[in-house]
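Chain and backbone:
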Amino acid sequence: MKKGHIFFISWVAWAWKWTAIKWLQDEKIPNLELALSCKTREPRDWEVLWVDYNKLTVDEFKESIEKWDFLEYNFIHNQAYYWTRFSDVIDNWINKWKIVIKEMDILILPKVLEERKEYRDNFTYIFLDLPIDKIKDRMLHRWDDVTWVDYDYRIESAKKEKDMAYLADYIIDWSWKPEEALEVIKKIIFDKINELKKW
């Protein structure tokens, strides 16, 4: 295998993408690693800093922008910055022949496709989709964590994300039974790994 490969997993708002990522980790797919994102927000109750994501300050984020040290970044749900360091992707993953899972907002994908064309063969983009009605239902059932303002932002984000889904290599209906959806994702990963071994 000449280069590593990244499986970017994206999601429509409230698709609970971490469920998919955690399951893939539990499957212990050979040589598959989880790459952490950098975020400026505080951890949620179930998250552990430096295990689930790397937390940086807004000033550190802005400093990294000036250094152009991003593959992608975005201001999510009008709440916090999320990003992926370019040096991590190239130096630590692709050039070291690693197979990596990484979350990435689909709203950033057009920018990545335009500005990082030379690395297009080094990643596969998987989008986890949900109907808008399902998203609304999930949010309302966790109302203690969601304000009306947050609700509106996330529904608007979900609509924008769904409009961009056509850019993904694969769209997975995350309203299926979880076991069925996971098997589809696993097949995508195994098929690509087997393809890479032939290079």
Observations:
- Residues 78 and 153 are 7 Å apart (CA to CA).
